[in-house]
Amino acid sequence: MRATVIHGPHDIRIEEVPDPEIREATDAVVRVVNACICGSDLWAYRGVAARVAGQRIGHEFLGIVEEVGSEVAGFARGDFVVAPFVWSDGTCAYCLDGLHTSCPQGGFWGEVGSDGGQSEAVRVPFADGTLVKLPKETAGEEKLLPSLLALSDVMSTGHHAAVTAGVRPGATVAVVGDGAVGLCGVLAAHRLGAGRIIALGRHGQRTAIARTFGATDVVAERGEAAVEAVRELTGGQGAHAVLEAVGTEESMRTAISIARDGGAVGYVGVPHGGSAGVDISQMFNRNVTLAGGVAPARAYIPELLPDVLSGAIEPGLVFDSTVGLDGVPDGYRAMHEREALKVRIAF
After folding, report:
1. pLDDT value for 294
2. How many domains does the chain have?
């Protein structure tokens, strides 16, 4: 089969690799229908996150089950499924607590020795604990596929930011970051009943999506200017809940500074490019809570799926480009150069 392989910074290739096969009785093999390029993939593409030459890449996909191991009970050939960006056994103490990302037997797609999601097929360890079954008829609903795909990562991650920041009905929420995760954070806050949502972003196409998703205000400034703008919009108090979806020192500093006293920051931006920029004294003096981390998408997908199927939320709007597998290297370039927000891969 063919798969996306990274050989170094800015060196993404489509290569022939061995077909996946059942290795353990709990495995499944899934033929990929849709995958995508994530903003976090760009850190490997840019050389910020280390990768081994020849390593697979990609961690978001929808697909059709082709084969299952003898101990897989919940899935059969022909099932349409979504895979969260981490596999997990579904039975350990962490999985039972809804923290599948801490599963001792879990892992991330594209790790050395595992398949990446940007490929024609994937071996799925612990299929029963990892995959979520979708209605079979939705496999042919082209308009719905992008939103189902978003559940694998960005919508679940935006939701995690909102949940850990304590978004509640009527709350004022600020979202730092106008990438796909930040935009899904806006959508998640709106879904949870936020009364006012301030999106921090300066790219017109992206802030337009933020407005569609429920943002009531847009702040284009950065740094101290952004802090001042949010304070002005909120009568000097700041936001009850802040969703941090970038992962830089500046974005974290901004997020903490625009939280109101007694507020909370839900951080989901993958840390990169320096320290987290957390000012413990500022947080202590103002009773600001910091929570978040890697989103346990497997715990959230069943909750979010009904709203996607009903059309109540449409996170798939973050995809503004679709390519075939051969177009993936150019998709990376387009996202790197901000010509595309998020690229979907259709097989």
Report:
1. 97
2. 2
